[in-house]
Amino acid sequence: MRDMFKPALVLFVICLIVGAAMAFTNFATAGRIEQRITEDSENARKAVLPDADGFVKMNLDKIKAVSGNSGYDTIKEAYAAKKGDSVIGYVFLAKPAGYAGEINIMIGIDGRGHVSGVEIGDNKETPGLGSKAKDKKFKGQFSDKKYDIINVVKRKAEKGDEVQAISGATITSKAVSIGVQQASRLAGALLNNVNSPTS
Hints:
alpha+beta, five-stranded antiparallel beta sheet, 7 strands, 41% helix
């Protein structure tokens, strides 16, 4: 009995030490991880609307209410893009459902209502297929266009409202397009409503 108790005690002590070390590491790095996430998000906003010198987070519930409150389910965050005191566009974080889960997409819309940039963030899409959504060839198709509806096609895009799907990743392509489409519509509603809330 004693021979069984000693290894169990040793194992318990080892688990206790390892658990305490992991907890300490998590506590020590949590602030840095949070800071890195904040910096990455700010860099993504700057990438999609580079003319802005700052971004002010908007109250999403208020702007959805002002904008009709429907058709914006993928939009999770909204920012007024500012240059000096002027709002020069909007940046949205959309999280549409892709093939393997949510796709984080940062979308910039300039003051004309045109897409100024699209950045694909964290996702679990299939490597070599859906992961190609990050490629400039795909995401560049959205740039400098104004959308109400985006049609995803498997052939070469021929019309202004068409985007060519990634070969073998139509679901991912449609998910990204839905996020961009909803951001475009919401930005259009904000640009057309001078009384839109900015906070």
